[in-house]
Amino acid sequence: MANRNPNTKGLMPWKPGQSGNPSGRPRIQPISDRYAHIAEEKLPENIRKKLKLGTGATYGDAIALRTFQAALEGDLAATREVREAIEGKAAIRVTQEVRESPQVDLSAIPTRHVPVRPN
Predict the structure, then answer these.
(1) Cβ 73 vs Cβ 84: under 8 Å
(2) Considering just the CA atoms, what is the radius of gyration of the chain in Å?
(3) Does any domain span residue 69?
(4) How far is Cα 82 from Cα 73, in angstroms, rounded to an integer?
(5) Which of 72, 85, 87, 112 shows the smallest number of beta carbons within 10 Å?
(6) Measuring CA to CA, which residue among 99, 79, 100 is closest to residue 90?
(7) Residue (of 98, 64, 62) closest to 81 by Cα position
(8) Are 76 and 68 in contact (CB under 8 A)?
(9) Rounded mean pLDDT of 47-72?
(10) Does residue 80 lie within any of the structural domains?
(11) Is 62 exposed, middle or buried (0-12, 13-18, 19+ CB in 10 A)?
């Protein structure tokens, strides 16, 4: 019988446990990728001078400066943003109060005899 798919000649199958795509599907973040690109662009001179940033300052530098300024003025969202950028998001801390089991006096509960029926 002839080979129905001649394009498979010379191909080697994957070894057991080996992935055919070890890197996986590429992660694409279209908006975040654009933000990252714009953040690295140089600021126009008029904005750079207004913010009193050094030569070669970028949009990212301007945003970081303005976020710090807002945090210093009491903006809690800006403060959280700065902290999370530096330390990462805060883990939710759960504290559990340890208590001893309460002692209950069962002698006050009236008891009655329940007869067991024979099978």
Answers:
(1) no
(2) 34
(3) yes
(4) 13
(5) 112
(6) 79
(7) 64
(8) no
(9) 95
(10) yes
(11) middle
97 token code pair: 């109060």
Per-residue pLDDT at 4:
65
Supply 104's token pair: 């209950």
* Pick from 51, 74, 45, 49: nearest CA to 64: 51
Tokens representing 87 are: 């330390």
State how far the Cα of 40 lies from the Cα of 94, in Å rounded to an integer: 39
Looking up tokens 């700065």 gives 82
d(CA 32, CA 43): 19
**Cα–Cα dist 111/118, whole Å:** 22
Residue 72: domain span? 30-88
What pLDDT shows up at residue 67? 96
Q: Please tell me the total count of domains within the chain.
A: 1
66 lies in a domain? yes
